[in-house]
Amino acid sequence: MVQTRKKWMALIIAAAMAFSVIGLGLSTESVSAASKKAPKPKKIYLKATSKRVDIKGKVRVSVKSVRPKNASKKVRWKSSNPRIARVSKNGVVTGKRTGKVRITATSKRSKRVKKTITIRVKKMTPRVKIASKATAYTGVKKTVKATVGPKGVYNKGVRYKSSNRNIATVSSKGVITPKKKGTVTITAYSKENKKYRDKCRVTVRQSITGMKFAVASKEMQTGTTATNALTISPSNPYSKAVTYTSSNQAVATVNASGTVTAVAPGTATITATAKYGAKKTASYKVTVYDVLNASNGTYTLDESKYSSYRVSAVREGKPASITLTPADIDNLFGNGNAGFDWSNAMSVRDNFPKAAFNYNSGNDYIFSKSGNKVTIKFSDDVMRTSWYYVPDKSFVMEGNGYTLTLFQMADGTGEQISLTMQDNTLKAGSDTKGVTLEKNGDTIEVTATARGTTVNATLRSVSATQYTVSFDPSYISKYQVEVKAYK
């Protein structure tokens, strides 16, 4: 009767399980596959058959493979004598005292499948290894890291020492701080015993410590090339090699030798970087402009294309010389300071303290002294004329103030025109000298005379974004008129 009940219970349970599988939409095959586990291994292979470990040292043992390949690799580790060496569940063996033990790996799926490895525990001699040579640069730290072997050695600690701290020092972590050019030996010692050591010969080279361009900024016309002298300090670094880069290659490019090519109006920063050592840098700003062409003496200024313009002119001239004796200087200049006009074209401030000639405005002269005579030869006979124009569509019709400098002399003085519109009436400022103004509709005719030279200019509003500046066509070549346009 009891047997009959057990049979009926088994049938009911089987039917319920079948119903559950069908109701969930699962096949009996998928249930069977889900319940499968990795097969039991028949053999275990370790990565080594024997290893050595220092007293207090550590070494890892691990499974290399199993058969079949898809069998479980999970094992339990056990030491034959934990007093000589013990092993963790992850296979890390720690030496305790001199001796030999067997570490056994037993499959977690089958206690019959196991493999052993022999571990010899003995006092090990550390071997210190460091690079035999290295190169460092002043101003740049460098690390020379020593290693300690063999595997399983307990004390892997290292101390470092420099043979000459004036050339280079070294930290406890092997970081070298170069001090000056020279050669130094860095020794790495085992912390266990100083007799275990290795040496590295370090050559310290002099880095570039500073760089400076001759000028901080430079203007260039589109399509031209230019260089900017670079001063490097100290004068005797290991290498003076530098790399050049441009912050805006659409405006200006620079080649490996530092030659800059102006591509299009705008600004760019040219940077030089030391190739070796401390990687010092220097930079300067390049402003590229277009030069406008005149049409019958008239230049069109278009603020939709450019943000500002500069119009300049210089008078043609030939080298001239003047010879003065010390007595002439005393008689003519008295207190040592005087100004004179040269060919009605140039005003120069000269300073003659104690009969020594010094041209304050620059180096546009050649100076020589012979006996009691001082000879001054000017490099050219120049009248400099320049003025700046920033497009402003309202300056004519809405009355904003505007200043136009027609004459800019070598001593910094000039003839300026201050224009103001009030109630549609054009007025010139009180600083205007030798200037006549005539307004005809939206056109301003300007005539200025200074030191025997007359310049005529025309300012005319063309549209909301364009203006024109006109000169007598003959002046453009005579006075070398040039209109520069900037972004």
UniProtKB/TrEMBL annotation:
<feature type="signal peptide">
    <location>
        <begin position="1"/>
        <end position="33"/>
    </location>
</feature>
<feature type="domain" description="BIG2">
    <location>
        <begin position="207"/>
        <end position="284"/>
    </location>
</feature>
<dbReference type="InterPro" id="IPR008964">
    <property type="entry name" value="Invasin/intimin_cell_adhesion"/>
</dbReference>
<dbReference type="InterPro" id="IPR045197">
    <property type="entry name" value="NUP210-like"/>
</dbReference>
<dbReference type="InterPro" id="IPR003343">
    <property type="entry name" value="Big_2"/>
</dbReference>
<protein>
    <submittedName>
        <fullName>Ig-like domain-containing protein</fullName>
    </submittedName>
</protein>
<feature type="domain" description="BIG2">
    <location>
        <begin position="124"/>
        <end position="200"/>
    </location>
</feature>
<keyword id="KW-0732">Signal</keyword>
<dbReference type="Pfam" id="PF02368">
    <property type="entry name" value="Big_2"/>
</dbReference>
<feature type="domain" description="BIG2">
    <location>
        <begin position="38"/>
        <end position="117"/>
    </location>
</feature>
